[in-house]
C-alpha cells in the first residue's frame, strides 16, 4: 500500500526542448503533481524551461533553476524531500539523479521512486545495460564500450561496418549515429565523445532493415505486470523512430511474435526492478524469427505519450500511484473510468498513425540548404496523429494534420521525378517518402519489389495501393455518391475531393450533407466499449452511431497549435494550456481540438472535451456544427482558418500571433523591444527587452517613470485585446512609431515574461475576452509598467541545439526564427 514514509517528492524537469523532447515530459509532470496531491504527497519541481506548464501548477513548490547538480542540491537542502522521482525528467533527470546519489547524505535520506540506483546507472551507460540483459538471456546486438578513438576503430573493424555510435552518460538527449565507413566513424566519434560526461562511447553492430517495435508496460511493487500498448514503425531500423511513420496497434506481427516481445518486456521490468512505466524498444527480424533489445526507457517519453493518447489509458496517473507502493489492483482512477480499469490491459477498436513533421521547407525558404535524407539522426521537429477505423483513414488524417496541402498528397505531384531519382529515393528515403511510394506503385512497381527495396512490410503497400486507387476512382467519377461515401469513410477530406472533382469545397460539403454523409464521433477509451465509461476524448469517422453529444450551452472551442514547429513549438502548447485552464477557473466549459500527441492541451484535467482531429476548416466546422460553441479561440497565425470561420459566421476570437516566427538580430547587433498590453482601447507598456543573437534580457530596473513616460504609445485601429511589441535597433525607442510598426509579441517571449514577472499575462487577456477582469487585474493595469516583478533581471537563452549534427545546414541557423528550445537564467532575484 501507500508508502507512508514519503511526504514530499522532488521532481526534476526535462529542461529545454530539443530534438526528441517536446512537451510530453512536462505533460506527465503536470499530471503526476496532481496525482500526488490527491494522495496527500507534496511535490517540489525544478526546471528552467519557460514553457513548462507544470512549473505554474498550484499544487507544487516550483523552482526556476538551472538543471545542474549544484542547483538541484541547493533545492534538496532547502526542501528536504523524502524521495526523488526521475521518470518525468527523461535522460536529463536520470543523469542528475546518478550524480546526486553519489552524495552519501542524499543516498541515506532520499529514496528513489520507480528505479534503483544501479538501474539508473545502467540506463545512463548502455554497456552496463547490455551486460545485465545478456545475464538474463535477453538478446542484444553486438556492442562494446570504447574509451578512445583508437579503441572505437578497433571495435568497428571487429564488428564490421555499418556501426552505430552512442555516447555513454550523455549531457543531453543524444541520438544514435550511423557510420558506414571510417570517415563517418571519425565524425560520429567526435560528436559522441563531446556529448559524453564519462568520455566513453558505445559501438553497436548495425542492424539496418530490421523491423522496429515498441512496447509500453507497467509493473507494481508486487510484481504485477501489464501491457499498455505497442507501436510499430512503418520504416525499418536505419531511420530514426521519430522520423518514421508509426502505427498503433501493431499490424504486422503474428500473435506468437507479439507474445514473445510481451514476455521479454516483462522479464526486463523484473530484472531491472523497475516499478511504474517502461518503454522497451525491439528490433525484429521476421526472416530468422529473432529479436534484439535496442532501448529500455523507464521514464515517460514520446512513445508513452503516443500510447496514452491512442488507448485513452491514464498512464501518468497510474504510474504516480504504483511508484508510491499502491498495487495496480488498488489504484483509484477518476470517476470517468470503469472500476478497476487501472489493472485491465487496454484494448483498441481504432487505428492511430503518427506522422513526422519536418522543417526543411521553412529553412530552405530562408536560403539555407539542409540534408533531407533520413537516417539514424532525428530530423523531424514535431509530429501529428490521425485516428480512424482503418489504416487508410488514420494515415490520411495524420497527413492532413501535418499541414501538408491536399494537392501535395495527391500522387500526381511526383510525376516529374526521373526514374533514377525515384529508385535512389526509395533506397535512401527523404521526408516525402509517402508520396514517393505511391508514385512507385502508380508506375507499376510491384509490392514485392518495393518491399525488398525499402524493407517496409508488404501490408502497408497494399494500403497505399488502396488509397491510390480510391483517389483515381473518385477523380474519374465526379459527383458519384457511392464513391463519395467510400472516400469519406477512408479519410479523404472535402478539400481533396473538391480538387479531384475540380469543384468548390462548399459544393462537395453540401453534397455530402444532402446525402447524410456527416461524421460521427467515437470515444477513445481503454476498454473499447466493454465497460461503461464517461471519457471525454473523441475522433471522427463515418459510421452510424455518434458517441459524442453536445457539451453544454455556450462552450468555448479552442483550436490548438498542432505539430511542433521550429520557432514556436512548445510555447504554443504552453499558451493553449493556459487558455484552457483560465476558462476552467472561470467555470466556462471548454473543448480543445488538436492533433499533437505530445501536447499538454489534450490532458483531460484542462478541458471538458478533447477532439483529436486535423485542424482544417472542414474538420473544425464539423465540430462547430455538433457543439455549437459561443466562441472559437484560434491562434493568430492560422489566417486562412480564421477567415474561413468568419465567412461562415462563426464568432472567432484571435490570440494575436505572427504568421511566421520573427527573425532575431544579426550577429553583434542589439535589438530593443517595448512590450505592451492592449485591452482593445488603450495600450500599456509592460516591459522592455534587450535582444542579442541567442539571448534576450528583461530588466525591471530600467522601467523608470521617466522612461515609461517617453516610450512610444501609438494608436491602434482594432479592438482585439492582446500582447504586442515594437522592435528597434535604437534605444531609447523612437517616438514616431506607427501602428503598422507593431507586431504581436511572440508566444515564447510572453511565456518568459509570465515566469519572470510572476503575472500570467495570457490569463489576463482571456479574462478580458470573457469580461471577467478582477480587482487585482485592474490594479495591475493602473500601475503598469511599475508593478513589482518576481525576478528583477532575467535572460531567455537559446538552447545549444546541434543543428549541424541533425540537419547539416550550409549556414548557421537563426536561433530566434528557428528556435528549438530555450531556458531561463535568473541574473538577479
TrEMBL record:
Cofactor(s) in the UniProt record: Mn(2+); Mg(2+)
PROSITE patterns: ATP_GRASP
Keyword Aminoacyl-tRNA synthetase: no
Gene3D superfamilies: 3.40.50.20, ATP-grasp fold, A domain (3.30.1490.20), ATP-grasp fold, B domain (3.30.470.20), Carbamoyl-phosphate synthetase, large subunit oligomerisation domain (1.10.1030.10)
Domain ATP-grasp: 130-324
SMART domains: CPSase_L_D3
Reaction catalysed by this enzyme: hydrogencarbonate + NH4(+) + 2 ATP = carbamoyl phosphate + 2 ADP + phosphate + 2 H(+)
Annotated InterPro entries: ATP-grasp (IPR011761), ATP_grasp_subdomain_1 (IPR013815), CarbamoylP_synth_lsu_oligo_sf (IPR036897), CPAse_ATP-bd (IPR005479), CPSase_dom (IPR005483), CPSase_lsu_oligo (IPR005480), CPSase_preATP-grasp (IPR058047), PreATP-grasp_dom_sf (IPR016185)
GO cellular component entries: cytoplasm
Alphabetical UniProt keywords: ATP-binding, Ligase, Manganese, Metal-binding, Nucleotide-binding, Pyrimidine biosynthesis, Repeat
GO BP of this protein: glutamine metabolic process; pyrimidine nucleotide biosynthetic process
MF annotations from Gene Ontology: ATP binding; carbamoyl-phosphate synthase (ammonia) activity; carbamoyl-phosphate synthase (glutamine-hydrolyzing) activity; metal ion binding
Family listed: Belongs to the CarB family.
Record protein name field: Carbamoyl-phosphate synthase large subunit
Species whose genome carries this gene: Periweissella cryptocerci
Amino acid at each position: 500500500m501507500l508508502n507512508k514514509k514519503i511526504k514530499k517528492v522532488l521532481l526534476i524537469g526535462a529542461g529545454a526542448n530539443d530534438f526528441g523532447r517536446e512537451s510530453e515530459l512536462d505533460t506527465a509532470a503536470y499530471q503526476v503533481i496532481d496525482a500526488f496531491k490527491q494522495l496527500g504527497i507534496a511535490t517540489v519541481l525544478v526546471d528552467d524551461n519557460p514553457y513548462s506548464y507544470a512549473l505554474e501548477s498550484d499544487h507544487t513548490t516550483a523552482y526556476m533553476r538551472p538543471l545542474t547538480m549544484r542547483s538541484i542540491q541547493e533545492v534538496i537542502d532547502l526542501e528536504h524531500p523524502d524521495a526523488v522521482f526521475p521518470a518525468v525528467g527523461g535522460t536529463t533527470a536520470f543523469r542528475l539523479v546518478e550524480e546526486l546519489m553519489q552524495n552519501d547524505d542524499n543516498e541515506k535520506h532520499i529514496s528513489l521512486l520507480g528505479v534503483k540506483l544501479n538501474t539508473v546507472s545502467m540506463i545512463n551507460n548502455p554497456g552496463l545495460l547490455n551486460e545485465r540483459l545478456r545475464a538474463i538471456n535477453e538478446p542484444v546486438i553486438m556492442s562494446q564500450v570504447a574509451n578512445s578513438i583508437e579503441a572505437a576503430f578497433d571495435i568497428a573493424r571487429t564488428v564490421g561496418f555499418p556501426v552505430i555510435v552512442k555516447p555513454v552518460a550523455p549531457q543531453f538527449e543524444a541520438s544514435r549515429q550511423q557510420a558506414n565507413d571510417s570517415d563517418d566513424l571519425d565524425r560520429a566519434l567526435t560528436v559522441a565523445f563531446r556529448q559524453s560526461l564519462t568520455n566513453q562511447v558505445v559501438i553497436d553492430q548495425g542492424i539496418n532493415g530490421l523491423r522496429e517495435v515498441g512496447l509500453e508496460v507497467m509493473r507494481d511493487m508486487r510484481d504485477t505486470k501489464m501491457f499498455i500498448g505497442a507501436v510499430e514503425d512503418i520504416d525499418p531500423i536505419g531511420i530514426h523512430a521519430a522520423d518514421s511513420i508509426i502505427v498503433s496497434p501493431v499490424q504486422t506481427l503474428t500473435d506468437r511474435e507479439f507474445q514473445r516481445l510481451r514476455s521479454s518486456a516483462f522479464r526486463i521490468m523484473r530484472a531491472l526492478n523497475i516499478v511504474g512505466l517502461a518503454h522497451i524498444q525491439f528490433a525484429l527480424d521476421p526472416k530468422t524469427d529473432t529479436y534484439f533489445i535496442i532501448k529500455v526507457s523507464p521514464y515517460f517519453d514520446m512513445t508513452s505519450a503516443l500510447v496514452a493518447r491512442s488507448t485513452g489509458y491514464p498512464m501518468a496517473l497510474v504510474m504516480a500511484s504504483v511508484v508510491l507502493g499502491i498495487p495496480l489492483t488498488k489504484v483509484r482512477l477518476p470517476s470517468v473510468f470503469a472500476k478497476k480499469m487501472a489493472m485491465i490491459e487496454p484494448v483498441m477498436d481504432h487505428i492511430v498513425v503518427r506522422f513526422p513533421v519536418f522543417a526543411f521547407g521553412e529553412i530552405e525558404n530562408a536560403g539555407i540548404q539542409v540534408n533531407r535524407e533520413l537516417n539514424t539522426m532525428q530530423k523531424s521537429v514535431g509530429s501529428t496523429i490521425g485516428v480512424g477505423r482503418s489504416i487508410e483513414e488514420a494515415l490520411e488524417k495524420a497527413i492532413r494534420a501535418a499541414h501538408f496541402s491536399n494537392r501535395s498528397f495527391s500522387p500526381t505531384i511526383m510525376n516529374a521525378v526521373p526514374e533514377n531519382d525515384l529508385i535512389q529515393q526509395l533506397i535512401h528515403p527523404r521526408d516525402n517518402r509517402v508520396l514517393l511510394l505511391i508514385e512507385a506503385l502508380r508506375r507499376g512497381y510491384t509490392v514485392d519489389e518495393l518491399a525488398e527495396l525499402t524493407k517496409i512490410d508488404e501490408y502497408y503497400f497494399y494500403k497505399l495501393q488502396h488509397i491510390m486507387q480510391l483517389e483515381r476512382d473518385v477523380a474519374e467519377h465526379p459527383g458519384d455518391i457511392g464513391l463519395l461515401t467510400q472516400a469519406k469513410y477512408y479519410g479523404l477530406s472535402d478539400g481533396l475531393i473538391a480538387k479531384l472533382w475540380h469543384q468548390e469545397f462548399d459544393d462537395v460539403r453540401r453534397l455530402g450533407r444532402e446525402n447524410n454523409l456527416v461524421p460521427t464521433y467515437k470515444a477513445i477509451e481503454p476498454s473499447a466499449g466493454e465497460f461503461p465509461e464517461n471519457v471525454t476524448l473523441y475522433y471522427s469517422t463515418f459510421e452510424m452511431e455518434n458517441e459524442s453529444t453536445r457539451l453544454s450551452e455556450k462552450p468555448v472551442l479552442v483550436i490548438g497549435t498542432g505539430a511542433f514547429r521550429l520557432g514556436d513549438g512548445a510555447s504554443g502548447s504552453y499558451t493553449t494550456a493556459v487558455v484552457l485552464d483560465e476558462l476552467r477557473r472561470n467555470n466556462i466549459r471548454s473543448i480543445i481540438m488538436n492533433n499533437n500527441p505530445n501536447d499538454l492541451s489534450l490532458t483531460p484535467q484542462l478541458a471538458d472535451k478533447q477532439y483529436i482531429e486535423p485542424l482544417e476548416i472542414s474538420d473544425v466546422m464539423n465540430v462547430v456544427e455538433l457543439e455549437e460553441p459561443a466562441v472559437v479561440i484560434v491562434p493568430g497565425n492560422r489566417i486562412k482558418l480564421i477567415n474561413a470561420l468568419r465567412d461562415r459566421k462563426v464568432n472567432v476570437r484571435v490570440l494575436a500571433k505572427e504568421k511566421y516566427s520573427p527573425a532575431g538580430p544579426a550577429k553583434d547587433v542589439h535589438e530593443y523591444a517595448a512590450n505592451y498590453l492592449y485591452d482593445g482601447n488603450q495600450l500599456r507598456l509592460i516591459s522592455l527587452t534587450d535582444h542579442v543573437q541567442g539571448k534576450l534580457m528583461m530588466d525591471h530596473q530600467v522601467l523608470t517613470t521617466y522612461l515609461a513616460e517617453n516610450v512610444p504609445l501609438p494608436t491602434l485601429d482594432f479592438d482585439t485585446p492582446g500582447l504586442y511589441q515594437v522592435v528597434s535597433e535604437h534605444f531609447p525607442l523612437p517616438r514616431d512609431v506607427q501602428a503598422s510598426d507593431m507586431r504581436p509579441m511572440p508566444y515564447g517571449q510572453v511565456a518568459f515574461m509570465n515566469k519572470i514577472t510572476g503575472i500570467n499575462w495570457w490569463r489576463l487577456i482571456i479574462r478580458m475576452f470573457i469580461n471577467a477582469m478582477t480587482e487585482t487585474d485592474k490594479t495591475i493595469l493602473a500601475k503598469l509598467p511599475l508593478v513589482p516583478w518576481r525576478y528583477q533581471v532575467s535572460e531567455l537563452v537559446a538552447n545549444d541545439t546541434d543543428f549541424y549534427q541533425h540537419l547539416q545546414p550550409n549556414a548557421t541557423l537563426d536561433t530566434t526564427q528557428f528556435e528549438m528550445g530555450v531556458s531561463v537564467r535568473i541574473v538577479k532575484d
